[in-house]
Amino acid sequence: MINFNVPPYTGKEMEYIRQCVENQKICGDGSFTKKCNEWIEHKTDTAKCLMTTSCTHALELAALLAEIKPGDEVILPAYTFVSTADAFVLRGAVPVFVDIRPDTMNIDENLIEAAITDKTKAIAPVHYAGVSCEMDKIMEIAEKYHLTVIEDAAQGIMSSYKGHALGTIGDFGAFSFHETKNFSMGEGGALLIRDEKHIEDAEIIREKGTNRSKFFRGQIDKYTWVNFGSSYLPSEMNVAYLYAQLEIADEITDHRLDCWNRYYERLKPLADAGKIELPVVPEGCVHNAHMFYIKAADLEQRSAFIQFMKENGIMCVFHYIPLHTAPAGLKYGRFHGEDKYTTKESERLVRLPMFYKLTLEQVDHICDKVIEFFKG
To answer: Is 0.70 surpassed by the pTM of this model?
Structure first.
């Protein structure tokens, strides 16, 4: 059986966790948390990175910093994970969904402006599969209408747009380190802050509304409750697990890209023959091989394909159910304009196995079965 996903593991994770236990520091913001913060800041050239318990919490923290309030509207794609919308629904805001581009499955930047009202407060682009949205256009719109941009870069670490790391282009960005991501700590995430003016507020909210971070830096002689907040600090043991992977992030990414490129090379003849469609990476975008997907003709063919692959010992999966069709999406949000591609394209997409230590021999075997199904 070839699993769809196997969480990354380098061999150093348990040693780093043991160090946490022996140093009697297993709660948040220890030495490994600082190392991960600094690694991400250096790698992405962002002003500040704060590790969080999840990407969901990073998005919630961004929504608080953006001062999203009841009645505000936030524009985002419906083809995304629920956390993108939840972060704003929890603040009482209305998610306004717009259609996606069929080539990248990202929000269609040309449909955003028409969805803006006097209640619009933010845009939340989602970089699907680690391939960037058209951020120049999105930032141009945000500047024109004075909107905050919160990048959901859950899948985007090590990806870039025109030389800029994803998550660093908008006002705030969020990474995920869930077990399905390129680098994992089980459950975890990170908030990226572009402008230094937001750093102190972010630290306070993340530390239950206290100025505890300044206390530990020796900037004040005691800390106290100064604002609203919550606990967004991950366990030091979880972050230690992650740091073992960040140390070899380039190696992990290169391996995933090798697998991605092999998939593309082997399956391109099927695409050229019109049997399937392959992922598109626009010019100026550097991706991280977070996933490899294909598109079947329709929902019926996709279902048959997934069953065929399962019978042959290969786990393939579909992805998001568009949020605007879900019960909560109907209750809390609305779709602006025509759903020309979101539902149709989501019903065609299927993800092939992709993980660190997936071998090229396994990729070839998977491709053989894909070719067998679509040629048959």
So the answer is: yes
